[in-house]
Amino acid sequence: MSFTARTTRSVSLTRQPDVTNSGRIVQVTSTLSSTALVEELQGRIREVDPLVNAICTPNPAALTEAARLDTERDEGRVRGPLHGVPVLVKDNIDTADLPTTAGSLALADQPPPPEDSAVVRRLRAAGCVILGKTNLSEWANFRGSASSSGWSAYGGLTRNPYALNRSPGGSSSGSGAAVAAGLAEYAIGTETNGSIVCPAALNGVVGLKPTVGLVPQQGIVPISHSQDTAGPMTRTVKQAAALLTVMTGSQTDYTEHCLGADLSNVRIGVPRGPLWGYSKGLDQVTERSLELLSQCGATLVDHLSLPTPGGDEDQLQVLSHELKVDLAAYLATRAPGGPRTIDDLIAFNKKHADQELQWFGQELFERAAATQGLDSPMYVAARLTALRAGRDGIDNLLRDNQLDALVCPSYSPAWTIDLVNGDHVLGSSSSHAALAGYPLISVPTGLVSGLPVGLTISGTARSEVTLIRLAHALETARIAADGPFPTPEFTQWV
């Protein structure tokens, strides 16, 4: 079996890139055609992406798509607010005209999927230009326990634009890094547990994980149907709201809930405990964010606690059982001749171990392969325990304290890349919402030693309107107090 890996780019960690517009955020305006915007972004990609390696597959038809959409606009046909806007899509989301590999060489030489995913169909229908596919942590960081976020055998290693020796987070690594680096203002990521909010926080961008089921899962390489969802990753909250409006295909215009900095009559809970304390600098920046929320008129109910969301074993049981079944169902949609089961993928990785298994193993795949299906009493019990731990913890805290939402630190500042030992994650904000299938959004709040950090705002099911309102208020207040978020410098930081 033959396959093709992308050539890993050589990256200098000591030089500054020769980028003339690194400090400018490209804005889509009526005076800038889609063709001109795509050309400008493609030029920036050529200059900057050799350092960051965020894009694994550029779309060679992007300019043609942009020109067609410009013609439509000239003829008075405008599909919506994102008509002609370039969007990057994570490489585990099906595009009929570009490969979808999930970062694996096992899918690298397979034909593109026979049709777009539901999400991509909605993007195209709204007039978005697919600029390309972004690299990710291979198999969305669920193959081996010692993985490094941002590495895949197909796409190579993505780096953090703020410090090239630091992790971009994952698994939506390329989407977060690309937006931070100014390669596009709009990107799509996916999340099972932290895969949007982690790279959003580490790269200083906005990342919104919707309620599971709000965005269709069809055509997305899965881990878990009970936890997986696609979501927007953008420069600003309002951009995330606009992209979510398109992705959901609903009548709700989420941008209408970006109402500025007034949070009068809003009650926000602040759970402490293990969600804090793993990074002193992060805690300090988060306390500043709480002050800003209070200045916006919100009532903060502090020093609350969320119950521990359950043992790791229950969570692993759920993901392992669902991965085996869901992945087989997805692979059956691909062209004949490729892998059809997780056992096929395990065998492929062993055969090509020098490339696929050079940094970490596939024990999570092997664990999933040994499961006995979704009728297994072990799965049923673990799923019930995990669901109750996530939903009861969040909903009870909201109800008992009459809260609109919860806030906590997102993730620690980016850790150094360590392909030998894997990621060094100190703490996170996503587990309760992941188990519950509930939404959350990470908003940039500041820098710690030059590295971005964020605040996570979470709530109950289908509370995206509330989360967007709060996130936009915090963003508005922070910009008024501190100015625009600092742009990356593409240098090594030790």
Overall shape: it is globular
Low-confidence stretches: 7-30
Largest sheet: 11 strands, mixed
Going across the major beta sheet, what is the strand order? Answer: 1-3-2-6-8-7-12-13-11-9-10
Structure classification? alpha/beta
Helical content class: 25-40%
- Quickly count the helices: 14
Distance between the termini: 42 Å
In total, the number of strands is 13
- Listing every helix as H and every strand as E from the N terminus to the C terminus, the arrangement reads HEHEHEEEHEHEEHEHEHHHHHEHEEH
Strand content: 5-15%
Mean pLDDT: 93
Our Rg estimate from Cα atoms comes to 21 Å
How do the helices and strands line up, and which of them pair or pack?
Elements: H1 34-52, E1 55-58, H2 62-74, E2 86-90, H3 118-125, E3 129-134, E4 151-152, E5 156-157, H4 173-180, E6 186-191, H5 197-203, E7 206-209, E8 229-234, H6 237-248, E9 267-271, H7 280-295, E10 299-304, H8 312-331, H9 342-351, H10 353-356, H11 363-369, H12 377-400, E11 405-409, H13 431-436, E12 440-448, E13 451-458, H14 464-482
Parallel strand pairs: 2-3, 2-6, 9-10, 9-11
Antiparallel strand pairs: 1-3, 4-5, 6-8, 7-8, 7-12, 11-13, 12-13
Helix pairs in contact: 1-2, 3-6, 4-5, 7-14, 8-11, 8-12, 9-11
